[in-house]
Amino acid sequence: MAEVIVAGGGIGGLATALAVAARGHHAVVLERAGEFAEIGAGIQLAPNGLHALDVLGVGAAVRATAVRMAELRFMDGVTGAHVASLPLTERYRRRFAGPYVVAHRAELHRALLDACLAADTVSLYAGAQVVDYARDATSATALLADGTGITGDVLIGADGIHSAIRARLVGDGEPRISGISVYRAVIPMERVPDALRFDRSVVWWAGPGCHFVHYPIAGGRFLNLAASRADGGTEAVVGERVHRDRVLRELADLGGTAQRLLELGADWKTWMLVDRDPVSRWMDGRVALLGDAAHPMLHYAAQGACQALEDAVVLGARLADARPDELPKRLAGYRDARHERTTRVTLAARESIRLWHPAGAEAESRNALLGAMSADRLYDHVAWMHGFRVGGPGAAESAA
User: Fold this and answer.
1) Domain segments of the chain: what residues?
2) Which of 92, 100, 215, 379 is an active site residue?
3) Which CATH class is domain 3-174+276-399?
4) Which of 14, 275, 346, 371 is a good FRET partner for 304, with 20 to 30 A between their CA atoms?
5) What gap in Å lies between CA 157 and CA 163, rounded to an integer?
6) CA distance 325 to 184
7) Cα-flanking dihedrals φ and ψ of residue 181, to 5°?
């Protein structure tokens, strides 16, 4: 049994703990905050992410509160025209071996946390901020802000986009600022008129230099709102409160139903979207990166959490039955198995801005292109993401 130290108690860190514990190791999770909790609101989970959750043993718990979607609906936010929909019906579920759901991030985190609390081979420590690491030929140590260290056979940096482990391992400075601000709010569904609910749809309204997405969360009790504006911002804003008037002003190019939904929003907060350029250096001997610490991406592909979950399952499979002297080689195998795929998703999320934000003739061309695509052709475009499969006993990964 190896001692696996995990820096970070978010979705990726807890998933990692479950994955390595299932393979016979002991996981020690170090969370910088005073308690294990998840911030944020809605999260989309494609079949690839749900499959990873199934392998981790928490798929049923997540499905119990998630909302199963019937379509991904693309709208022209200026004209209000329905451009295209990707059906998430039985046909989709057969092709990708599962549904497409949306959930509250806190509910996903809670399912993972409960499973960790129930596992005898997972230890959780809050208020343990990892600021650096040290390693030698036989061990890795997480160095904490209080001057102490926690030593194990392996250290996994799952401590997010501002990862202290990455700062030492890669040393690539601050994240890349996208110049796109996102505004988020969650409102009770009872405040939403029936005509505006789109109860089983993830809906995108695209406009010039902006777009707006909404979908139900928490079993349909709330509506999650997220609006983006390419404003050229240069500061890494994180969760600042903003007045409703600012949101409406920034999204004024959107009209009709989109504007009516935005007007319902309250208690808006804003973030500057950031990511990092893909790198291949994810490991240093017995230290490796995972999730946003390894490959932070813009949320436009709705795959950030799914990729972290895939990482965890593959890492657990790679570490199965590993002798202590084999661990660095196994970590290298995990990195090799995940690097190409996560790089592709990261770059696809960036490239998708060209889909959301064109204006004029470019927007008309986009609408014509999407509107002419059949459901099967749309499925073909997302198959490499949604149809991917990881894990299961005896297999590191497979692709549908």
Assistant:
1) 3-174+276-399
2) 215
3) alpha beta
4) 371
5) 7
6) 47
7) -95, 140
